[in-house]
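Morning, I've got a small favour to ask if you have a moment. I'm working through a protein record and want to make sense of it properly. The fold is given in discrete form, as structure tokens running alongside the sequence. Can you walk me through what the tokens say about the fold? Thanks so much in advance, here it is:
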Amino acid sequence: MNAQAIDQYFKNNRETHLEELKTFLRIPSVSSLSEHKKDMQKGAEWLVTALEKAGLENVKIDETEGHPVVYADWLHAEGKPTVLVYGHYDVQPVDPLHLWESAPFEPQVRDNKLYARGASDDKGQVYMHVKAVEALLKLNGELPVNIKFIIEGEEEIGSPNLPKYVEENQELLKADVIVISDTGMQGPGRPAVCYGLRGLAGIQIDVKGPKGDLHSGLYGGAVQNPLHAIVEILQSFRDQEGLIQVEGFYDDVLEVSDKEREEFAALEFDLEHEKKEIGISEDFGEKGYSFVERTWIRPTLEVNGITGGFSGEGIKTVLPAEASTKITCRLVPNQDPDDIVAKLKAHVESHKPVGVSVEITEFDKGKPFLTPFDHPAIQAAGRSYEKVYGVPTAFTRMGGSIPIVAAFDEILGLPVVLMGFGLASENFHAPNEHFHLENFDKGLRVISDYLFEVAELN
């Protein structure tokens, strides 16, 4: 790779690229709101034009039961690996609008940061892959690898139609590695490759007692209170140190190697700074695991909310008829969401207090994902980051979930490389979302280099 020529190309075209990206960001492609359905189509059409301009072939819009998927490829690197690039063009809603310092769909650059909804998540990062391919085709007339793009419009609503699309188009999407830029770095100037995500299982528990609210003076002490009952159920889920008490919950947990734990420790995570940032005096959780390990490699069970009874001003002496709670579990490799939900249901049934009935509703599910951190495609990404940023790359996991990543892993059976360029401070999903242009500039070079690194993996 002629790094100097690529660097000069991006410098010469920086303002043009930024203006193009701003045009993309002006499209209010909010997938969750029906009034933006036409904008979703407009976003897909914009991508088609951008991909064709970059020199990609077989560019098309594939309709789904929801918002469309955009596909493109370039397949002329005979005998070389094929890279499948995934991203999404939909964005989160912008509420509350009054907290934005500039209009969310009128991009502005301030302090070398590009402010707009979707700037970091994920339009800016998707656009970088398109421009990296364009640069290599214009400079060299060819790519070092074969490449395919799949860019969807439903990631922000859980990708409900993409697994079916992937299942039905396995031959079209056949590749050697999947690359996704929808994650973050360790911090400013600190690149990271994410190789593992936790899964998700969520339920709602509804507890019902009498047919209506009762006067606590007339019935208290003689009738089971659904709020007390739901608290009793919740208390049974964990011990005082956070260890989950659901029978069999940890049975399938894949233990982490000593080498990986050494890598985590080498990240020099600043616990005191983290506690200050989130406003706590003490951390909490399983003994024998660090803060990072608890949030990356251990499963969780968290109560997300409780409703029931009277919570207005003053007091109302009522014995409520019903109470409800929502629970989510973050899962780690080898845990299956359906199995965990079944175990949660069995636990609730066996710990149900007398005098109430219980209903359980299942919600979001997503399988955990893991590519071995010593996989050649993962290590190649680390080398590309290091060349451009000049510092060692961190190899990390994430505590959150991207359900479609697990679906890619399960359906296509390919290693997934999460090469993110965002920062945790960039307010994705919140007002004043922005993207540090330092990482936009460097990211273009990292992605370009990575394609050459992958070409040598054969």
Observations:
- The chain has a mean pLDDT of 96.
- The CA atoms of residues 6 and 135 lie 7 Å apart.
- The chain is about 35% helix and 20% strand.
